Amino acid sequence: MIIRETFGRQYTSEITGKKTATRVYFIICRDSSTPTYIELSDVVTEALSNGLPALGSSYGTGSFELSLIAVQHTPTEVDKELGLYNIEVKYETQQITFASPTDRDWQIQFSSIFEEYVPEQTLCNTGVVLPIGLTAAVDINKPIINSAGMLFDPPVTDVKTKVKISLTKNFTSIPSTSGGLEGLFNMVNCINDDAITIAGISGEKLQFLLEEISAQNVEQDGEDYYAVTYSIIYDPEYHFRKILNAGWQDANGNLITGLNGGPISAPWPLTALGMPIRDLADRITDSNYFGFGTKRAVSFSSLSLPTTF
Fold first, then answer.
1. List of residues 6+ apart from 231 with CB closer than 8 A
2. Which of 5, 57, 131, 178 suits 233 as a labelling partner, its CA being 20 to 30 A distant?
3. CB of 191 within 8 A of CB of 296?
4. Contact 190/196 with Cβ under 8 angstroms?
5. All structural domains of the chain with their residue ranges
6. Residue 206: phi, psi to the nearest 5?
7. Alpha-carbon distance 205 to 283, whole Å?
8. Could you count the other beta carbons within 10 Å of the beta carbon of residue 274?
9. Are strands 34-35 and 30-31 parallel, antiparallel or unpaired?
10. In degrees rounded to 5, what are phi and psi of residue 40?
11. CB proximity list for 14: less than 8 A, separation 6 or greater
């Protein structure tokens, strides 16, 4: 008998957290070069003595596969006269018993959130339409202004997508930072001050926001523990404001006037030295932004968050 695992391997991770896997084996029954017919009900028994995974055997070495065990064999005939069969081996998550609720691993959930915002600069140059008579190239990180070189009123809005990561873990006591319990909850609405990987997402400095912390005291089987949940928002465009350098006055305190000498109706783009950018093309190519960190940056290392998913 010859047994070969085919490429019909499939994993499934269900919403409930249950993990399954399917492996398909191609069975060739031969006595020397002569096909051997075996009753379908006996194929599994013969195959088990020739290397087919037995029920109860484990599968895999990775974190996803580690708890999978074989629970079912399903044989089918391919060509009984040629002695050809398939056997499907189904695996399911092994029932794990924890000595304590605090031994359970992190429970991780991802979701997308959508936020309407006022974009402060261009992020790509695909499909750009230049105002009539303007030849300057429009590139990324340039202001969103009209053909007069002024800000739109009302401003242009768009929708931004962010990733929300919810992480729950049971602890014998509420995790504390150097500031104790108060220090932990003071981290809410703070951003990461260094590069970090959370649940498989690698983020640079200022890309993670600790949106919320919740903790609940639970008693189970005579044991007290705390179920703690962290809600973290990942934004690849960073959690800080980039605002166009524009104003009603120049650096000398003089009111800025329009090209015809009249009053302006919106803040005028300024140079890095605080003087109005008069040339229309220069307002697109030379406008600059100030970055404002409006949230406190702290280290997330004290939370001991999981790095993999």
1. 164, 165, 166, 210, 211, 212, 213, 214
2. 178
3. yes
4. no
5. 2-93, 101-113+159-237+296-309, 119-156+246-287
6. 75, 15
7. 30
8. 13
9. antiparallel
10. -55, -35
11. 20
Tell me the residue type at 193: D
- The pair of three-digit structure tokens given for residue 194, joined into one six-digit string: 């260094």
pLDDT per residue as tens, the chain (309 positions):
788 888 656 666 655 556 778 888 888 887 666 667 788 888 999 899 888 999 988 886 554 445 688 899 999 988 888 888 899 999 887 666 677 888 888 999 999 999 888 887 776 655 455 554 444 455 566 777 777 777 787 888 888 889 999 999 999 888 877 677 788 889 999 999 999 999 999 999 999 999 999 989 998 878 899 999 999 999 988 887 778 888 999 999 999 998 888 888 888 888 888 999 888 777 777 777 787 788 999 999 989 999 987
The angle subtended at Cα 170 by Cα 178 and Cα 20, nearest 5°, is 135
How is residue 221 written in tokens?
């089987």
User: 5 is written with which tokens?
Assistant: 């695992």
Q: Give the containing element (helix H, strand E) for 297.
A: strand 297-298
